[in-house]
Amino acid sequence: MSRGRDSPTPFHRVRENEVPTQLSAGGPDRIGSPDVSPNPQPAVEVSGLVKRYGSKTAVDGLDLVQQPGTVLALLGPNGAGKTSTVEICEGFRQADGGSVRVLGLAPGSEELRPRIGVMPQGGGGYPGIRAEEMLNLVAACAADPLDPRWLIDVLGLGGAARIPYKRLSGGQQQRLSLACALIGRPELVFLDEPTAGMDPQARRLVWDLVAALRDDGVTVLLTTHLMDEAETLADEVVIIDQGRVVAQGSPAELTANRPDDQQLRFRARPGLDTSLLSAALPEGLKVREVTRGQYVVEGMIDPQVVSTVTSWCAQQGVLAEELTVARRSLEDVFLDLTGRELRS
Amino acid sequence: MTTFAPGTFKPKPGRGSLAKMLFVHARTEAVLTLRNGEQILLTVLIPLALLVALSVMPVIPMPEPRAGSAAARIFALAIISSAFTGQAIALGFDRRYGVLKRLAASALPRWLLVSGRVCGALVVAVLQIALLAVTALVLGWRFPLSGLPWLALLIVLGTLTFGALGVLLGGALRAEIVLALANIIWFVLLLVGGVALSASVGFVHLLPSAALAEAMEAAVVHGTAPGVGPVAVLVAWGVVAGAVATRTTRLT
Q1: What residues are paired with A74 via a beta bridge?
Q2: Which of A38, A267, B146, B232 is 20 to 30 A from B14, comparing alpha carbons?
Q3: Structural domain contains residue A243
C-alpha cells in the first residue's frame, strides 16, 4: 500500500492534470526567441515527450530541463520510461510527440554526435574485438581523444585489454562502454544504468568518475533505479513513473522534512502492543511495527515524544535499541510516489 | 574530492578525420573476419578444397579448360561466402552484441559506418581471390591478363551485391536464424544456383549466384568483358536488396 500517495508532499509534485507550461511554447522555434530566460541554453530540453510502443504509452508527456555542467539522475522503477527517454535524446528512437533539443540541436544529428558521449544500456561491441581495439576504434572517431591506454587502466580493464568482448564479464563490458562514452572528451554524457552489473568497487569508481566529470564542467544525464546512486551523484533528481515526471528537485529538496513528517525508529522485542504506545503519545502520531521488532513512530517528533517512547518501553520492561530520528530517505520518497507493490 | 586531477575530463569534443575513421573501421572489420576461425573455414578453406576438387577430379562435369572454369566458379563462391554468408552472420551477432548501436553513438557518420564495412569486406574478398588465384595457377589455370580489370570489377560488384543481400538477411532477423539461413542459402546456391554446376534451367540465370559465376567465367577464362545480362542481374539484385535493407535493418 502506498503510504502517502494522496497526502501533500513537501516538494513540487507534478499533478497529473497539470499542463506543463513549456508544452505550449515548445518546439525548435522557441530557441533564440527574445522572451527566453536569461539562463544559458539548457544542455537538454525535453518538452511534452511522448513515446508509444503499440498500444502501450512508455513516455507520456514528459518535460525535463537540464542546465549545463550539472548531473541529472532520471530515477524510476523498471519500465518507467527512463531508457526510452534517454534513447530519444541520444537519437536512437523517434519520439511520437513533443520536442527534444540536446545542446540546442536535434538528437542524433551529425553535428551533435561528436559533442556527446553515450553509454547505452548493456554496453556494446563486436563479439570478437579486444577491449583495447574497441576503445581505439571509438577513439579514432574523436579529434582529440583521451589516451585509450590510460583510460583502460583507470577503469581497471588493464588485465582484460586483450580479451574478446564476448568473453568479458557484464561489469567489464559496462566499464568498456563507459570508456567509449568518455574517450572523445564530450561536453555532455548520457549514461543509461551505468553501474548495472558492477561490483561495489566498480560502482565506487563510476561514482568517482561522474564526480570528476561534473567538476570539470561535463554535463551528465544518467538513469538509475538505485536511490543511493541518485542521492550521491545528482544535482537534480527527476523521478519518473509510467512515463511521467512525478517529482523533481535536488536530493535535499526531495527528502526535505516537514515538521510533521519525521520518523522515530527503534528496535525492541517483537509483538509489543502498539495501540498502548499510541495512546501514551500525543494526538496525530502513528505507531507501526514495520517488520518484526522494528517499530516506527511517524509524525512530529520532538524531545517529549522521544522521552515518552523510552519511558513507555521502560514500563514494558524492554530496552529500545537503535533509536533514531530520521529524515525521509530518497527511497521513502520514491516508494511513496511509485508505490510499494512489486512490478512485473 | 575525486582521485582525478582537475581538468582531466575538461570537454574538448570534435570529430576525428574522416580518412582515419574509415581506415580504422575498415581495418577492424577485416581483421575481425580474418581472426574468426569459422569465417576462415567458410571463406577460405572450403573454397580452396572445392577448387582443388573441381580442378583435379574428372568425375565432376566441368567445361574445358577445366582449371579455368573451376577458378571462375570458386571465385564466385568465395565472394558469396564472405560477402553474403559471412557478412550476414557477422551482422546478426554484431547486432546481438550491440556494436552497431555503440558505433552509431560515436562520432562516426552513418555513411561511414556502411563504407567501413564495405571496405573491410572488399579487403577480405581481395585476399581470398589472391590466395585462390595462386592455387588455381598452380593447378593449371592460364589467366588471360586482359581479364584482370573485369575480375577487379566483378570482385567489387559481387561484394556489393552479395553484401547488400547479406545485410538484408543479417540486419533484420535473430542471430541464430541468420546463422542457419545464411548457411542453407549458401549451400543451395552452391549446388543448384549455377555455381558449382552450370545453370541448367532458365530461371537459374536470374539468380545473382549464376550471374556472378557466368561473368567470372568470361573474365577469368576468356579474358573478355562479362555479358550485359549477368551484370544487369547482379546490379538489379544489389539495388533491390540495398533498398529493402535500408528499411529493415535494425541496430539491435
Answers
A1: A223, A238
A2: A38
A3: yes
